Amino acid sequence: MTDVIIVGAGTAGLTAAIYARRAGRSVLLFESSAYGGQIINTPDIENYPGLAHVSGFDFATALYQQAADLGAELKYERVLSVKSLPDRKIVHTAEGDYEARAVILATGAKNRPLGLDREKELIGRGVSYCATCDGMFFRGRDVVVAGGGNTALEDAAFLANYCRRVYLVHRRDEFRGSKETAKKLAAMDNVEFVMNSRVTKILGDEKVEGVEVTDKNTGAVRAIAAAALFVAIGQMPDNEAFSDLVELSDGGYIEAGEDCRTKTAGIYTAGDCRTKTVRQLTTAAADGAVAALAASQEM
Length: 299
Prior knowledge:
By secondary structure, the chain is α/β, with parallel strands linked by helices. The chain folds into two domains: 2-111 and 235-298, 3-Layer(bba) Sandwich (FAD/NAD(P)-binding domain); 127-231, FAD/NAD(P)-binding domain, CATH 3.50.50.60. 22% of the residues lie in helices and 27% in strands. It is built from six helices and 17 strands. Strands 1, 2, 3, 4, 5, 6 and 17 form a seven-stranded mixed sheet that branches. A five-stranded parallel sheet has the order 8-15-9-10-11, with helices on one face. The protein has a three-stranded antiparallel sheet with strand order 12-13-14, with no helix packed on it. The longest helix is centred in the last third of the chain and has 17 residues, at 281-297. The mean pLDDT is 95.
C-alpha cells in the first residue's frame, strides 16, 4: 500500500511528489512517456521566480532529481483507470494494479491538432507540434506556423532564425499572444502574417509540401509552398479514463477549485489538467504543493 500515487510526472506531479515525501508519505509516480511534461521542449524559461533563465530540460531534470533524492519512485506505465473504494484506491495500469490511500491526478494536457485529413499520418514528415524539437530539420526552407497565442508567436520567432520564410496563419485579425513578440515578428523580413485565415488542407503525398489556407471573410483559398506545418493552437486534457471518478468540464478538464479536491474523497488533481484560468509553471507547482499537503494531512 502506497500512501500517495501521482498520475503524471510533469511540474505539478513532481512538485506533489516532493511535498508528499517531505510530509513523510510514501510516493509512487506513474508517467506514460517522459518526466517533465511539455516544458522539456522549451529552450529558455524566463518567467519562473528565482530562475531568470533555465532550459525546460534542465528545469525538469532538476525537479525530477529532487523528487527522486527524497525517495519518490517513478514507474513508466500508463494509468488506464482508478477505482475508489472506502478504504483505498486501486490504480490500474497495463502492467497491473497498485493500491494507495490517496491519488493525485496530474495528467497535464497534450497538443491540440488542427483536425485535418492526413495530419496524424504526416507527423514526423513535416507536421510537428514542437518547433524547438523539429525546427532545425527545416533550416533554410519555408515553413508554416498555425496559431495566434504565445506558443505560436514564440515558435515563429524561433523558426525565423533558421528558416528562409515563416508564414504565421491565424484565424483572427489580431494575435492573442504577446503584443511585444508580435511587434518583433512584424519587423522581420522573413515572417509573413496570414490573418483571418485557417489552414484547411495539407499538400503533399509522402511528406508536407505545402498547405492550403482559406480566408474566413472572403472564402478565397491560397496555396503556400512549405516544407513543414507547425501546429500551435493550444492544448487539450487527456482525462477520459477518469470520467467515472471525477467530474469533467465541457472541455474535458477535471473540475476542482484552488484546493485541488475533486468530487471523490481521496482523489485530488493538480496542474494543467484541472479547471483553471491561468496555466503556467508557477500555478502547476502551486497545485502540486496544495494537492500533496491536502492528501498527506487527511490520511
